[in-house]
Specification:
This is SGNH/GDSL hydrolase family protein. By secondary structure, the chain is an alpha/beta fold. It contains 16 helices and 7 strands. 54% of the residues lie in helices and 11% in strands.
Length: 311
C-alpha cells in the first residue's frame, strides 16, 4: 500500500511540475510570425494593431507595411475582447515592447460578451501570472466551472505543444508580422442575405467597458497615439437594430473616455462610415462581419489615406 501511495504522490508531483512548466515556459518556444511573443521579440513596433478576427480578416499587412512609415504588427486573436486586449497590451508593454501608434479593434459584439478567451493561443503566449490574472477576470465575471479551470490550465493547447515544430511551421507560413496571408473570397449578395444575424445582447459588458478604460489609461501612461477602428460590416449588419444599439453604446463609452483624455499623444475614433467604403459590395465580404481579401485591401488603403491626412 505504501508503495502504491508513493507512486501516486510521485505521479501527482510530476503532473503538477509539467503543468507549471507548460503554463510558465511554453511562451519561450520559438515564436511564429503570429501572436504576442513574436511582437515582444521584435522589441519595438511603430504601429501596433490589437484586435479580433475583425483585424485578422480586415487588415492587409502588405498595404500597411507599404503605406505606413516605420514597422507594423497585427496582434489578432479570435473573439478578442476589450478586457483581454487591455491585458495583452499591458503584458507586452511590461515585457519591454516599445510602441508609438496603437490601433484597437472597435467591435461592439465583443464588448457585449462576458469575459472569455476564445482563442487559447493567448495562453501559449503568456506566463503563469498573466493566466492567473485572466482566470480571475473570467471567474469573477462568469459562472466558470472546475471543468473550465481544468481546460484553461491543464488541457488547453496540449495538441499544439505535442506537434509544435509542424504547427509552428504551418502558422508561420500563413502570417507575416501578425498579418494573415490567406486570401478569402467574397460572397454574392444572395448568399450574404441568407446568413443569420448575430442576435441581441444585454448591452456593453461592464468588465469590457473597464477594458476600454484600461487601454486608454495605458496609452496615456506610455505616451501613445491611440486609435479605435471599426472595420466595415456588410450593409445588412448596419441595418440590424441589435448591432446599432451596441454600436451606439460602445461609441458613447469611447467618446466619454476621449473627452477625458490627458495623454501626450492623440486619441481618435474612426468608424467605417467615415471612409468611402461601399458596404453594399458583396465581393468585399466573406460573411456579414468579415472582409474578403479584396475588401480588406480596399479598406486598408482607405485607412492609410486617412492616417496620412491626419498627420
Amino acid at each position: 500500500m505504501k508503495r502504491v501511495l508513493k507512486t501516486i504522490v510521485v505521479a501527482f508531483a510530476i503532473a503538477l511540475a509539467l503543468i507549471f512548466i507548460k503554463n510558465e515556459y511554453a511562451r519561450c518556444l520559438p515564436a511564429s510570425t503570429y501572436g504576442m511573443q513574436a511582437a515582444i521579440r521584435k522589441g519595438s513596433t511603430d504601429n501596433l494593431f490589437i484586435g479580433s478576427s475583425m483585424f485578422r480578416q480586415g487588415l492587409d499587412i502588405d498595404v500597411l507595411e507599404e503605406e505606413l512609415p516605420g514597422s507594423t504588427y497585427i496582434l489578432s486573436y479570435n473573439g478578442n475582447q476589450p478586457a483581454l486586449m487591455a491585458m495583452e497590451l499591458q503584458y507586452m508593454l511590461e515585457q519591454g515592447l516599445e510602441i508609438q501608434n496603437l490601433y484597437i479593434d472597435l467591435y461592439p459584439y465583443t464588448a457585449a460578451a462576458d469575459p472569455w478567451i476564445s482563442d487559447t493561443k493567448i495562453l501559449l503566449d503568456t506566463d503563469l501570472k498573466f493566466k492567473a490574472k485572466a482566470w480571475r477576470l473570467i471567474s469573477n465575471s462568469t459562472g466558470a466551472s472546475f471543468g473550465d479551470f481544468y481546460e484553461f490550465f491543464v488541457t488547453a493547447n496540449n495538441e499544439q505543444l505535442l506537434t509544435y515544430p509542424l504547427n509552428n511551421k504551418i502558422v508561420s507560413s500563413q502570417f507575416r508580422d501578425g498579418g494573415s496571408l490567406l486570401r478569402q473570397p467574397g460572397r454574392t449578395r444572395e448568399e450574404l442575405y441568407a446568413l443569420g444575424t448575430l442576435g441581441s445582447r444585454d448591452g456593453v459588458n461592464r468588465t469590457q467597458a473597464g477594458g476600454y478604460g484600461k487601454i486608454v489609461e495605458l496609452a496615456e501612461e506610455y505616451g501613445l497615439n491611440l486609435w479605435f477602428l471599426e472595420t466595415p460590416k456588410y450593409e445588412r449588419m448596419y441595418a440590424d437594430e441589435d448591432y446599432q444599439k451596441l454600436y451606439t453604446e460602445s461609441l458613447s463609452i469611447l467618446r466619454e473616455l476621449q473627452n477625458g483624455w490627458t495623454g501626450d499623444g492623440t486619441f481618435q475614433i474612426l468608424c467605417a462610415e467615415e471612409l468611402d467604403f461601399d458596404t453594399s459590395e458583396a465581393d468585399c465580404y466573406q460573411d456579414l462581419i468579415h472582409l474578403s481579401a479584396e475588401g480588406r485591401e480596399n479598406y486598408t488603403k482607405l485607412l492609410c489615406e486617412t492616417f496620412k491626412a491626419t498627420e
